[in-house]
Design a protein that fits this description.
Blueprint lengths: L2 E6 L3 H12 L8 E4 L3 H11 L2 E3 L2 H7 E7 L6 H8 L10 E4 L6 H7 L5 E5 L9 E7 L5 H12 L2 E5 L5 H9 L1 H18 L4 H22 L3 H8 L5 H11 L2 H19 L2
Helix pairs in contact: 7-12, 8-9
The protein binds 1,4-dihydronicotinamide adenine dinucleotide (NAI) and (2S)-3,4-dihydro-2H-pyrrole-2-carboxylic acid.
Length: about 270
């Protein structure tokens, strides 16, 4: 049996990618094989997407002709590398795409000798097609592999190519960023509740403010500082709020968060 696309690890990110690839018709369910150890996830993925699901990673490795997509936690990577070490692919050399935080190309290439490897860092908004993915290319890749990775990640949002030395910083910013922004939305809503708004309305106001601001910055290409200045009337409400943000070290907290997440990504790769 041969397939085109093999997914190792059908968790949050694996499913996000899989669902969009199927929805976009980039792969048909019959062309996909997924390996996943959790019985409840196996049943869900099979029912929801009508794809073949197995517990056997080696089956995915042997069957997937075009792409093997690695979406397990970085901590289980060495176990999987050992599991697949003795399997020789005589007739095909699939592109291996890894989204594992921190795991460098040289570890991936050592685990899959001679195979083309692309390291990628997507983020959870990929689930709704608004993801941000950075990719970097391994030594055995060519233009066709680059196009395939661009096609896959374009199905879930925007794609940029960076040098591998920047991948940990990408992880600290756009990979982990959706968590920081979620905390921002939650805290804004809490502020609204503290100021007397009902919870439901506070949540709606907070979310739409973040969404609308991001959309305005995106569409107008305005610098964030310019938009901030436009909102901020002399002696008005906004400057009173900004003054508190500065006092609390809001900018510095975000800068340090990205730096700490970058450092953790570096550690995971050791
Ligand atoms: N969650 C996020 O926002 C992002 C995660 N990543 C990376 O994606 C990878 C997956 O993360 P999530 O999807 O969040 O994790 P997850 O825990 O939701 O998914 C991992 C899946 O792998 C399965 N698994 C565990 N051991 C396995 C094995 N030996 N063989 C095959 N499958 C196995 C688990 O049962 C689980 O379903 C991680 O390496 C993470 O660094 C990258 C970008 C963003
Ligand atoms: O927290 C993590 O390690 C993963 C990588 C980027 C987002 N989530």
């Amino acid at each position: 049996m041969t397939r085109k696309f093999g997914l190792i690890g059908g968790g949050i990110m694996g499913e996000a990618l899989l669902s969009r690839l199927l929805e976009r018709g980039i792969y048909q369910p019959s062309e996909v094989i997924v390996s996943e150890p959790q019985p409840s996830r196996q049943a869900f993925l099979q029912q929801q997407y009508d794809v073949t699901v197995t517990i056997d990673n080696s089956l995915v490795f042997q069957q997937a002709q075009e792409v093997i997509f690695l979406a397990v936690k970085p901590q289980v990577f060495s176990a999987i590398a050992q599991e697949l070490a003795d399997i020789v692919l005589a007739e095909h050399s699939p592109l291996v795409i890894s989204i594992l935080a921190g795991v460098p190309l040289h570890h991936l290439e050592a685990a899959f000798p001679g195979l083309p490897v692309i390291r990628a860092m997507p983020n959870t908004p990929a689930t709704v097609g608004a993801g941000m993915t950075a990719i970097c290319l391994g030594a055995y890749t060519n233009a066709k592999h680059q196009q395939k990775a661009a096609e896959i990640f374009s199905a879930v949002g925007e794609v940029v190519e960076v040098s591998e030395s920047l991948m940990d910083a990408v992880t600290g910013l756009s990979g982990s960023g959706p968590a920081y922004v979620s905390i921002l939305v939650e805290a804004l809503a809490d502020g609204g509740v503290a100021a007397g708004l009902p919870r439901g309305i506070a949540n709606q106001l907070a979310l739409q403010t973040v969404l609308g601001t991001a959309q305005l910055l995106h569409e107008s290409k305005m610098h964030p500082a310019e938009l901030k200045d436009r909102v901020t009337s002399p002696g008005g409400t906004t400057i009173a709020g900004i003054s508190q943000l500065e006092k609390a070290g809001f900018r510095s907290a975000l800068i340090e968060a990205v730096k700490a997440a970058t450092a953790r990504s570096q550690e995971l790769g050791k």
